[in-house]
Amino acid sequence: MGYRAKIALAGAALAALGVSAGVPAAVAQEKKPITWWYETAAPENQEALQKILVEPFNAAHPDESLSIDFRGAELDKQLRIAMLSGSGPDVVYTAGPSYVASMAQAGQLLPLDDYAAKLGWNERILPVFLELGKYNGKLYALPKTYETLGLFYNKTLFEKNGWQPPKTIAELETLADAMKAKGLVPFAAGNADWRPTNEHYVSIVLNSIAGPDNVYKALNGEIPWTAEPFVKAIDTLNDWWQKGYFGPNYFSLTGEQAFAQVATGQAGMAPTGTWNFQNVPRYFPQNNAEPGFVGFPSAEGVPYPIYALGIGSTFSIANSSQNPDGAAAVIDTVFSDKFYGEMNTVWQGEWNTPLKDLSGVKMGEGVIPLYGETMKNLAASVSDGQYGYTTWTFLPPATDTYLVSGMEEVWLGKITTAQFLEKLDATFKEEKAAGKVPAIPKR
Amino acid sequence: MWLYLVPTLAINVVIILIPALLTIALAFFQWDGISAPVFIGLGNFVALWSDGPFWTALENNLIWTAIFLTVPIAMGLLAASLLLIVPRRGSTLFQVVYFLPVIIATAITARVWQGMIYSPVTGVFGYLQKLGLPIVNPLSQTSTALFGVATVDLWHWWGFLCVIFFAALRQVPQEQIEAARIEGASFWQMMRYVLLPGIKPTIMLMMIMTVIWSFLVFDFVYILTQGGPAFSSEVLSTLAYRKAFYDLNVGQAAATALVISLFGLVATFFYIRIQSRESV
Question: Of A164, B15, B20, B85, which residue is most buried, by most CB within 10 angstroms?
Fold first, then answer.
């Protein structure tokens, strides 16, 4: 090959490179990317997100290109590091409101107030959840899904024994004793796979025995956690443990193994969260049992039922985002009736977005009616202000982790209720002073 | 000639020295891992001093070290000396069998023990319970949880020591063994006066490494009990992890990590001293 030919070839190659590099650049200019890092999801759930969210969104927004990156169980740590360096995703998916407070404090999140007004979030979303996403008076996050605690039971077993779902603590204890006498475990429960399960029961007694008004006051620092109503609540929970209501294998069973015992009739009821609805179709039909779900019984002087609110994760927009409008459009799509209906048809318990009015939502076939009913009741109760506070959503991080281990210490006789509440209160006060307590919605 | 050092030195600086210095610095700051760190002097160490779980964790690390300095080393030595007696082909087979648990991922080993052995529903313990044996899951009792976890780690670990000791025993000079045999030494005399002194450096190294590794133990505890019930199996590394990633208290986590390193440093000091004495 001659010298000229070589030059010509090199020129052609460069031109080819230029063309091939130029095409995606042009497309990229047209389509603005929106990135979103998601946590662990089973393959069928990843597919559901792709089909129900990503594909329709990109089709409806030709200028945007949404992509979801599944980061696994380590998402939270990766996200914190990425946000520190300003290289995080556009849609910021945090593990809960206590993370939002820290990130907002550090200036890593964009205030959402303008989007909330413009896109109608203020009208569509339950106000209590908008309050929750606020920091220093500005809105920084919307909850992706909310959950509550209540009492699952085996309707078939109850009918056979002539039992009624209890509404008061006294009725609950009578029923639990009757179950024990029959050789059943009253409360199906286990924390072998998730130690924080302990706090589900603490949240229940704080709200249904001490009452949500007292919890609200304590969260705002008006009364200490050592106050009498909390002593009574923790003492009652300890009594239940000592009487054996939680069965002999609490530390050995996983949450799912324990829940299955309600379906098989080995256990009478399960005081647990609405996320367990995903386990209902897996265990109840094959045991020919019908499931039931009611609010947890209340102590005297506390209204019935109190639904303690919990938030699994939240949506925000990164301050460093190049495409905040696109990110807001994605969040807006998630908070639509259509998305709620389609997602909850295939994936229950994880996408209970806090929409004010669920009457316009259409669920697909095959969803158990109990789930839809429960969620509608819950939204209505929250709308009426009849709600409580879960510890994992409203307590600051160190107070919450202490609570998990501290309750075990009470159960196992290592410390007293008073010692437990004293340390809880001290940790809480320290974190409150450091501004780590998430926003508490007014009652 | 100094150029030879550059590649390893660069890796050490980037991967070890900088993070290590950052950790040391962070131990004197209050930091949630998100906002700006605030200098608080010795505040984190003072907080640790009055933290009950910290002392429980430290005590558990010491118990763990005591267990691993004795049980697996004794088991490894015994099995290695027995391997010396069996014919060559048999000893290879046993070495493979003993070594297998070492190469299984710790997460798998832990889950197998948790679900198939200890579990009262799906495990061997549950089966024995049904047969009427008064046996409970050790991980569910505060008095036995740490030992329950240690048993799993022991099962996974001792084979490694056995193979290392066996390799060392085979390096003991043949003339010494022959001489002892001609003198009419029994098996135990052979062990006591010829073989054990012959592999003493290996045993010492393994013991010092055991101290270091014992203070680093994390995986089995985290998977099997997450430090529970009621802190009964908490160790320093699980405590540090919880402080950093659950309490969002990176400063105290770094202070805890420094305490772990302190014990490792003491062990390393002794190791270097013994080594330099031997090379003289």
Answer: B20
Domain B25-279 matching CATH 1.10.3720.10: the answer reads yes
**Partner-chain contact A398 B249, CB within 8 Å:** yes
A126 and A198 both lie in a single domain: no
User: Chain A within 8 Å of B143 (Cβ-Cβ)?
Assistant: no
Residue A64 and residue A207 in one domain: no
At B238, is the pLDDT very low, low, confident or very high (cuts 50, 70, 90)? very high
**Which H/E stretch holds residue A209?**
none
Task: Closest CB to B248: pick one of A250, A397, A408.
Answer: A397
DSSP letter string, B232-280: TT--HHHHHHHHHHTS--HHHHHHHHHHHHHHHHHHHHHHHHHHHHHH-
User: Choosing among A405, A415, A423, A430, which should be mutated to test the B contact, i.e. which has the most B CBs within 10 A?
Assistant: A405
Q: Which residues of A touch B (CB under 8 A)?
A: 76-77, 80, 83-84, 98-99, 102-103, 105-106, 108, 191-192, 195, 248-253, 257, 397-398, 400-401, 405, 408-409, 411-412, 414, 434, 436
A368-402 pLDDT, tens digit per residue, is: 788 888 888 888 888 888 899 999 999 988 999 99
What CA–CA distance (Å, rounded) separates A392 from B243? 16
- Whichever domain contains A323, its CATH number is 3.40.190.10
Type of residue numbered B87: P
Same domain for A191 and A256? yes
What domain range includes position A201?
A: 148-309+387-433
Q: Is position A60 within any domain? A: yes
- Cα B73 from Cα B68, distance rounded (Å): 7
**Phi, psi (deg, nearest 5) at residue B87:** -60, 160
* Three-state DSSP state, A11: helix
d(CA A141, CA A129): 9
Residues from chain A contacting residue B53 (CB–CB below 8 Å): 405
Quote the number of domains for chain A: 2
Please compute the mean of the pLDDT values over residues A83-100 and round it to a whole number: 88
B248 to A408: CB separation less than 8 angstroms, yes or no: no
Confidence of residue A316 (pLDDT cuts 50, 70, 90): very high
Per DSSP (E only), the strands in chain B are: 29-30, 38-39
Test B226 with A195 for CB contact under 8 angstroms: yes
Q: What is the CA radius of gyration of chain B?
A: 23
In a domain, A423, yes or no: yes
Query: Does A276 share its domain with A396?
Result: yes
**CB A35, CB A318: distance < 8 Å:** no
Q: Which of A102, A251, A434 minimises the CB distance to B34?
A: A102
The yes-or-no verdict on residue A18 having pLDDT over 60 is: no
Q: Are residues A137 and A178 in the same domain?
A: no
A248 chain-B contacts, CB cut-off 8 A: 120
Please check whether residues A174 and A226 belong to one and the same domain: yes
Beta-carbon separation of B245 and A77 below 8 A: yes
pLDDT digits (tens, 9 = 90+) for B9-39: 999 999 999 999 999 999 999 998 878 899 9
* Closest to A99 in 3D by CA, of A111, A89, A88, A108: A108
Q: Are A436 and A397 in contact (CB under 8 A)?
A: yes
A259 within some domain: yes
Cα angle: B103, vertex B224, A413; to 5 degrees: 155
A20-34, A145-159, A259-273: range with lowest mean pLDDT:
A20-34
- CA angle at A399 for the pair A394 and A401, rounded to the nearest 5°: 100
Give me the interface pTM, i.e. the ipTM: 0.84
In three-state secondary structure terms, B41 is: coil
Same domain, A103 and A155: no
